[in-house]
Amino acid sequence: MKDKISLGIIVLISFILGGLSMYYFSSMHRVTIVEKNDGTVATVSNTCKSCNSTVIMENGSLSASVEKVVNAVVMVKNFQNDKLAGSGSGFIYKIEGDSAYVMTNHHVVNGGTKFMIVTSTDEEIEGKVLGSDEYLDLAVIKIAKKDYMNSVVAGDNSKVSLGDTVFTIGAPVGYEFRGTVTNGIISGLNRLVEVSTKNSNSDDWVMEVLQTNAAVNPGNSGGPLFNTNGEVIGVISMKLVQNAVEGMGFAIPMDYALSHIKTLEEGKKIERPLLGITMLNVTDSWQLWQQRITLPKDVEEGVVVVEISENSGAAKSGLESGDVIIGLNGSNVKNAAYLKYLLYKYNPGDKVKVTYNRNGKIATTEITLTKNEG
């Protein structure tokens, strides 16, 4: 009987102590939902006086990141013969001394004789284009620094993943909608998109870009694509505009842009290599007929060698007119745009292996690239 009474007392004491412990720890770590001063909602873990940690989890709002970078985003006006010819967006990527440096697209400044930069405070400052490149589709503009300006921080493109939330700030359509913020996700990585660098209907270049479904419209070109921390991971370059397509915007990866930016700042030309040939696509049937070139059977992709320049790398490689280039250093060559995309990863003096089809037989030769003097 005594043993049963003792056991009952022990159970009762354990129950009381357990309840006190649960009350004590729950009072230390109550979780409540509060509305902050900026109107956003946060989850707060309240701790006791002896605990110095307070954990705050944002509800997904981008307002703090937007506020951090908005003064670095600008609108770029392109004037030709004192008339407004077009506009785009840009962003301050560096402040040095009394100057601020704006990054934008080449096609935003192309053909311009005067450039006005509209800042976040609606102040207009005349800018000077230091350098621009049509294949990079990048340009650098120098302006006078103002106290309210700040520069962006570059993000790490190696950490960008499919589905990441992103946002952009720019001037879609024009002045009236400057400072527009849109958001979305990263929809694709390492997309290869064929474009025209000559404002023609013929694509002559391939850009490797990030794809996003954040709303991108005419006027957003040159603007920044941010991650949720407000770090720039891309430069908006174009939008795929077709009647049946919506929500496909593209951005030049920021690490690629920065790898060339010093050359543009110094006003130097980007040095690119040459194979030393004139060429046509295998689909250019009429031009090939005019050149009296007959393709091997079943050739659907590649670049046809039309002429070979004297004293070029190609002249010393054994290539001949009519050969169809189908590969460069192990990568397939779809057309002339893809050949340039692959070729421009190298420098003059580099050696590359070219795979070609001659009369139905596949062969490989090595070519030393030469400098483009054009």
Task: Give structural notes.
- This protein is an alpha+beta fold and 374 residues long.
- Among the domains are: 58 residues, no CATH class; 97 residues, Trypsin-like serine proteases (Thrombin, subunit H); 99 residues, Pdz3 Domain, CATH 2.30.42.10.
- It is 17% helix and 41% strand.
- It is built from six helices and 24 strands.
- The protein has a six-stranded antiparallel beta barrel.
- A hairpin with a 2-residue loop joins strand 4 and strand 5.
- The longest helix has 27 residues.
- It is elongated and about 65 Å long.
- It starts with a helix and ends with a strand.
The share of residues in extended strands comes to 35-45%
> How does the major sheet shape up?
6 strands, antiparallel, barrel
The proportion of residues forming helix, as a percent range, comes to: 10-25%
Please give the radius of gyration in angstroms. Answer: 30 Å
Question: Quick one: CATH superfamily of the domain at 273-371?
Answer: PDZ domain
The CATH C-level name of the domain at 273-371 is Mainly Beta
Spell the H/E element sequence: HEEEHEEEHEEEEEEEEEEHEEHEEEHEEE
SSE class: alpha+beta
Number of helices: 6
Strand order of the largest sheet: 4-5-6-9-8-7
Mean pLDDT: 84
CATH topology of the domain at 273-371: Pdz3 Domain
Number of strands: 24
- Architecture per CATH nomenclature, i.e. the level-2 architecture of the domain at 273-371: Roll
Query: Which residues sit in consecutive blocks of at least 5 with pLDDT less than 50?
Result: 19-57
Globular, elongated, flat, extended or rod-shaped: what is the shape?
Answer: elongated
Distance linking N and C termini:
107 Å
